[in-house]
Amino acid sequence: MDENDANDIIKIKKLTKTYGRSRALDRIDLRVGRGEFLTIAGPNGAGKSTLLGIIAGLIRPTRGEVLLDDVDAVKDRDDGLARKIGVLSFHSFLYSDLTVLENLRFYAKLYDIEDAEGRSDELLQRLGMSKRSHSLTKTLSRGMKQRVALARTLLHDPPVLLLDEPYVGLDQGAMELLQRFLSEKQRTILLVTHDLNRGLEVADRIVIVDRGHIVHDEPKNGLTLQAFDDIYRGSTTSF
Ligand code: ADP
Q1: Domain 35-46+79-235 annotated CATH 3.40.50.11540
Q2: Is ligand 1 within 6 A of the CB of residue 44?
Q3: Whose CA is nearest to atom 16 of ligand 1?
Q4: Residue having the nearest C-alpha atom to atom 5 of ligand 1
Q5: How many CB atoms lie within 10 A of CB 127?
Q6: Is this model's pTM higher than 0.70 or not?
Q7: DSSP classification of residue 145
Q8: Tens digit of each residue's pLDDT (9 = 90 or more) over 134-149
Q9: Cβ(227)–Cβ(37) under 8 Å?
Q10: What are the extents of the domains in the chain?
Q11: Is 32:204 a contact under the CB 8 Å cutoff?
């Protein structure tokens, strides 16, 4: 066993996902250290959302293995495992006919959170949404919904966050809030984004996916945006 093994919270081996005859992911190997921040970039259709979806347990892989904290995240998926993950994607998972607070209370109950009220209030305050806590979710703007979705993602304080295009739809203020929050580096985060600049700012490691393969995987070190952009252009194919 590699000496770094024990510190890897996510271990993915030969992960493949096919849809009919097309391969969204082709024998992906990926290891993510505890507390590491990965920014994942790649063109549309590269397989990024599929990768996050499989780790989140929302998509079933065709072949391969995903271990989360050494538990098989495909075969032995249970509530305990689900609680370790927070997912933010284009799908807000919010109920439009419930108020903001009712949504958070609902999820707090689902996750058995003790101080549901206090935790919801705290997050809404942090995300600048306290004033809208009694608004029906369907009356919120896209950016506001995204803020509430982020609160939902963080409710159970998951050690692993999977964020798929979290900046989309956010206004400048919300983007800065999210960026500040991501910079705190308190968890393991996989961030999929087309915003290379923001993605680079918060990352420890840069992964580029193209046509179902990881085509670049390096620590950020002192990578500049220009260099990242050059690597991105050089390693990906546009459709
Ligand atoms: P990305 O997130 O990088 O844009 P996706 O993971 O969404 O890429 O998609 C990877 C490939 O899998 C694409 O070719 C896409 O068309 C295909 N795909 C994704 N979801 C489905 C699905 N439910 N049914 C059929 N094909 C799918």
Answers
A1: no
A2: yes
A3: 45
A4: 47
A5: 20
A6: yes
A7: H
A8: 999 999 988 899 999 9
A9: no
A10: 35-46+79-235
A11: no
